TrEMBL record:
It comes from the Bacteria. It holds the Pfam family Amidohydro_1. Residues 436-450 have a biased composition (Basic residues). Residues 213-400 form the Amidohydrolase-related domain. Residues 422-434 have a biased composition (Low complexity). One of its GO terms (molecular function) is hydrolase activity, acting on carbon-nitrogen (but not peptide) bonds. InterPro entries: Amidohydro-rel (IPR006680), Metal-dep_hydrolase_composite (IPR011059), Metal_Hydrolase (IPR032466), Metallo-dep_Hydrolase (IPR051781). This is Amidohydrolase-related domain-containing protein. PANTHER family: ALPHA-D-RIBOSE 1-METHYLPHOSPHONATE 5-TRIPHOSPHATE DIPHOSPHATASE (PTHR43135:SF3). Keywords: Signal. Residues 422-450 are annotated as: Disordered. Residues 1-17 form the signal peptide.
Length: 450
């Protein structure tokens, strides 16, 4: 049996090694579409009717020339593409080469990368501008304390000397230094900056060398950076770990909070440390502070069963409290080897209402990432970007995992170069019944007399 198992493993390895590398996604020219008997998710339920697309947007009437006709027979379903509000895997050229096509595979057309450096992001921007690419926004000013997170993750050997020498993360130690460094922070560009709060209620942790690179800014520093950013017309997203960090981020006046408290418990603290209060939830709603969920990231920490159950219960309670207060939730995974689809399923497992979940993923989050665009909708004038699913995702969320078709701004996205190249040709309609062959009129038969 051991020999047979080894043989099977060897055969599997050889098969994987010989498997051809998938071709990258390509985009067709913008197509005109007629989608008859369609069903589409409008944020509340599935609507029914006909949809038309011309020049990259949905239109009210059938275009004069149609490249693609489809009769969906009220069986398949259309949803807008998903959005990823928190990741880091597309902020370098290497990461883009590894993961950009995975975003399209999984139907994620919009993404936010929250901690890139200006030079690395500059190399990625031309790639992100292509039609067959996820639309991506980048944060290029990521700010933490001199001993703060994520230095322990990005430095091979975390130390004060190594932290001072690196260029990816901006290190700020106090409000006065925030003011001094603001011109340099501003020069990094971007409409957003990211600040890190991690166990801000525990100043005693700064005396522990083992925690170097895992802490964050002091609350007064976070407040000063937020003030400077807002005065300069920029917005702020705050990384948080605990409920106290959540409160400090609200006190600073940030625009968004990255991480639901309780996404991780690296210091093995009591679950109550991560419980958001009802007052904090109401304050977040009043201040219009969005919260990026990132509950999928919990699986990365490989917790034992009991601690995992306790953490998941805190997450459920936090989600319920934020929803009850009317806080804007955004879908983000912070799973480097994944996309927002992992977060979609994680939230589904936590019991989030399916209709709400799909609305957050396909409407609220895309619009929050790109507020100046008409996306996440099927009305005339909306960008014609959608996924065609085999069935109703409200009844079966697994349908989202198997897109039958990916269309971005009217362009068909495909790994088949010849399909992309030929798609602009007027196609045979699948909406019209085949025309019956015309019967020849029978003439009067002439009887030959012999």
């Amino acid at each position: 049996m051991r020999f047979l198992t080894s043989l099977l493993l060897l055969a599997t390895g050889l098969a994987q090694a010989q498997a051809p590398t998938p071709q990258p996604y390509q985009a067709s020219a913008p197509l005109s579409w007629e989608l008859k008997n369609a069903r589409w998710f409008d944020g509340q339920k599935l609507q029914r009717g006909n949809l038309y697309i011309e020049n990259g947007v949905f239109v009210a009437k059938k275009p004069a020339k149609v490249n693609r006709k489809m009769d969906l027979r009220n069986q398949q379903a259309l949803i807008n593409p998903l959005a990823e509000a928190h990741n880091h895997n597309l902020q370098t050229a290497w990461g883009w080469s590894q993961y950009a096509d995975r975003y399209l595979d999984e139907g994620v057309f919009y993404a936010a990368m929250l901690c890139g450096d200006p030079a690395g992001v500059a190399a990625v921007r031309p790639l992100a501008a292509r039609p067959a690419a996820p639309d991506t926004s980048f944060v290029t000013a990521c700010i933490t304390a001199p001993d703060g997170y994520p230095l322990a993750a990005v430095l091979p050997e975390p130390s004060p000397e190594a932290a001072a020498a690196q260029q990816q993360i901006v290190l700020v130690d106090g409000p006065e230094q925030a003011i001094e460094q603001w011109p340099a922070i501003k020069a990094r560009g971007g409409a957003w900056l990211r600040i890190v709060l991690a166990h801000s209620e525990r100043p005693d942790l700064r005396q522990q060398p083992a925690l170097f690179g895992r802490l964050g800014l002091r609350p007064d520093t976070a407040s000063e950076l937020t003030r400077l950013a807002h005065a300069d017309g920029r917005r702020v997203v705050a990384h948080v770990e605990t409920a106290a960090d959540f409160d400090a981020a609200l006190a600073a006046g940030v625009d968004a909070i990255a991480h639901l408290p309780g996404y991780a418990n690296t210091l093995d603290e009591a679950p109550e440390v991560f419980a958001i209060s009802e007052n904090a939830a109401r304050q977040a709603a009043r201040q219009h502070t969005a919260v990026i969920t990132t509950t999928a990231a919990t699986a990365l920490f490989k917790l034992d069963a009991a601690p995992l159950v306790a953490l998941r219960e805190v997450q459920r309670a936090n989600l319920a409290r934020l929803q009850a207060a009317g806080v804007q939730l955004l879908i983000g995974s912070d799973v480097f080897i994944g996309t927002a689809r992992a977060e979609l399923h994680a939230l589904d497992e936590l019991g989030l209402d399916r209709t709400t979940l799909l609305r957050l993923a396909t409407q609220d989050t895309p619009r929050a990432l790109f507020p100046n665009r008409r996306i996440g909708c099927f009305e005339p004038g909306c960008e014609a970007s959608f996924l065609l699913l085999g069935g109703d995702p409200l009844a079966d969320l697994a349908q989202v995992d198997m897109p039958l078709l990916r269309v971005k701004q009217g362009r068909l996205l495909t790994r088949l170069a010849d399909v992309a190249a030929s798609s602009a040709q007027v196609s045979t309609s699948t909406a019209d019944a085949p025309k019956a062959a015309k019967k020849k009129k029978a003439g009067k038969a002439k009887v030959k007399r012999r």
